[in-house]
Structure formats: structure tokens, C-alpha cells
Amino acid sequence: MAEESREGLSERELEILRLVVTGVTNREIAARLVISPNTVKVHLRNIFAKLGVESRTEAALVAIQNGWVEVPTPVAEERISVAPQRPPLSWPRRIFLALALGVTLLVALWPRSVGYGQEHSSAFSDHTVGAGTTSGMDAAQRWSVRAALPAPRQRFASVSLAGLVYVIGGDTAKGVVGDVEVYDPSTDRWQQRSAKPTAASNVAAAVLGEEIYVPGGYDSDGRVLSVVEVYRPATDTWRSVRLLPAPRCAYAVAAAGGKLYLFGGWDGSRYVSDVLVYDPEQDAWSYGTPMSQPRGFLAAATFEGRIYLVGGYDGMAESAACEVYDPALEGSGRMPWKALRSMSFPRGGLGLAVAGQRLYAIGGGWNGGLAYNESYDIASDRWHPFPSPIVGQWRTLGVAAVESTLGTTLYALGGWTGDLAAVNRAYRASLRVYLPGLP
């Protein structure tokens, strides 16, 4: 195997990585390789640095994803191989066990999301069975617990502005709402603000100037909306601007160059690949170059004037796609879209934020749970795993990045984890260190 294909890992480091994948401890690795536990720790630090990870779990995931090691045979299978043979089962008993296994798999794989009567509605609303849950929680590294949402919630718009996190609209136990809650990281407290005039779920938001734009959405009657409402935090007031050219929900939205860009989503009958562009000076919408494929429940984030689109769901399958859109190329005769390296796993209903030179994709997993999140290094076009505070299903959550003098912190909020969630977890994505005598 070429050295470059293993991120510069030495044969000894690769040998240790193989043992890490099996789950053995540092002491056990030392005993097997006849080295000291301290030497194992040194090797692990080098491995983490070369792979750009921070834990044994992340290192093991990178190794498995890249095919550097084989997934170890479960211990249970090893025990079965040495167990005494039993007499073969009779045909009636074999049929009974096959039927029982089929029923078990049917129950386990039956979708958790239940619609409200329309054929497509299961994608846009979930049947809430309680007041919310935090099941599947895991004390992941670098994540901290912050003040929970005032009520369990999902499918809302989330955005940060002037050091505060805004949660707008969404689905709650009482149905689709227009409620606005504001989180202050400095005090770890929530406050209620003036509600959005039109209650809506399956929405997203972006900041233009000092205002927050929330287009379209999905109302309590299952209608897809065209309304565009704008919130001004300074006065705690709402206003309406020009309607969308066509109704949209479950889209992604981002701002760049003083304009608003809306990507994909559901128009009431199908998923679309459209790009809608809003010019606030003209109060007018126009169409941009479409995405490569129609989908909704994707996520967008802006970095240095370009907009990155990640993941999505088209009603049948999730997407692992990552592509970048350059608004400056619209109308120039050049293609504004460029495909980038895909994520390791497809993610629909995820959140996306920028910190430093990286994108952070959090949650997703429409039809099943995911064990970790992923960050994208923009400079190297590489995805890396990082821990998730919720292991398992976690989708239609909100993610926002807040910058401070200490660095950038990501906040992952609410979502669907098999029930409505009220979680608020903080992840320190970047840290600024000031040294005496240096600017």
C-alpha cells in the first residue's frame, strides 16, 4: 500500500491503528507489540495529528472508511464458530423462526415518521408521541450541555446575528408555530420575541444587513407557502417583502453579496433543483442556474462569497453531495457550480455552519441513525469525522455558529430523534489564543 494513501502513517502506526479498530486498550496494544504504554500513546498522538482527528473512535472510522483496515469479526461470531454443533432444526421450526425474524425486521425497519394523510406529508411532518426526548444522548468530546429550548421543536429556522441565536417557527407538540425564541450564549438563557406572522415549519433563514429573512414554509394545513417575512431584531418587528415566484419549503437558504439565495426544496408536488435569487434593493426575485439534482432538506453556508450546498433528500434517498455555487459567475457565461468531494455518508435534514476554514455538517440520517458528524476542510477538499452529541437518528435540527473573542462555537438545537427534542449542545469549533506581547 502506498505511503501517501495512508496519510503518511508508518507501518508501526498502521499496525497500532488496526488494533485500535478492534477496540483493545492501550495496555493491551503495548503487550501485543512488546512496547510500553507510553510509546503507544506517542504513536496515537502522531496518528491523530496525521489523520486530523481527536479520538480513537474518529481514527478507527477514518481507517475503515478508507479501507486501510478490515472491520474485525464480532466476538459473538467467533464464539459461534467454536460452539458445539446442535442437531438440525425441523422444517416446522425453521418456518416458524423465519416468520418470527421477518416480523422482527418489519417492526425494526418500519419508518418512524407518520404522515397526516397526504402521500408526501411524512417527509414534512412527524407524528409526535410525547413532549420530547433526549434519548440516544452521548457525552461526546468537546460538546457541552447548554440551556435547553423552551419547548421541544424541529423543522425551524435557525440563524445567528450579533452574538445571539434565533429559532423561528417549526413543529412543536402543539403543531406548526411562528414562535421566535432567542438564545444568549453569554448568559445561557432564552427569551421570547414577537412571533412570526405566518406560522410555518420546514423553513430556513439567512441574514441580510441587520434583518433575518424567512421565506416560504409549510403550514398546519399541509400547504406550501410563498410568503417571505423579515424580522428586525433591533425593533422586534416583522414585515413582508415580495412573494416567492413559486411556493417552497424544505429548501436551503444563504446570503452572499447583499442578495438572498434559495436552493431546491419542495414546491407542493415535487422536489426541485431551482435556485431563486432575491435582490432587496429591487424587491424582486429571479432564477439562477439550477442545482445538479432536485432535492430538499439540504443545508447551505457561505464562505468568502461562495455558497456551499451539502446533503439533502429527494423523497427516496439521501444525498452525500457537496458542491459550491459562485454567485459572481451568474450571467458571465461560466458555470457557477462546482462539484466537491462528497461526505462519507448521505445526510438529509442536516445542519451546516462555517467556523474558520471548515464547514461543519451536523445531524441528518433520514432513514436511519448516524454515529458521527463530519467537517469539511475547504482548502484540501477533505471530509473528516468528528463526534456527535446524539448517536442515532437526529434530523431536521437547527445549527448556528456564534463568533466571539475566544473563537467560534457551534450550537446544535432541537430536531427529531424519534420524538421531538429540546436539546441545546455547544461545540467549540475554533479557539483563539492570545499571547502576551503579540498583536
Number of helices: 6
- Find the CATH superfamily of the largest domain: Kelch-type beta propeller
Mean pLDDT: 84
Q: Count every beta strand, where a strand is a DSSP E run of 2 or more residues.
A: 24
- Classify the helix fraction into a percent range: 10-25%
Provide the spatial order of strands within the biggest beta sheet: 1-24-23-22
Could you list the spans in which at least 5 consecutive residues all have pLDDT below 50? 71-87, 100-121, 129-139
Outline type: globular
Please give the CATH architecture of the largest domain: 6 Propeller
Would you state the CATH class of the largest domain?
Answer: Mainly Beta
Which secondary-structure class do the elements indicate? alpha+beta
Account of the protein in words:
Helices cover 16% and strands 32% of the residues. It is of the alpha+beta class and 439 residues long. The chain is globular, with a radius of gyration of 24 Å. Residues 71-87, 100-121 and 129-139 have low confidence and may be disordered.
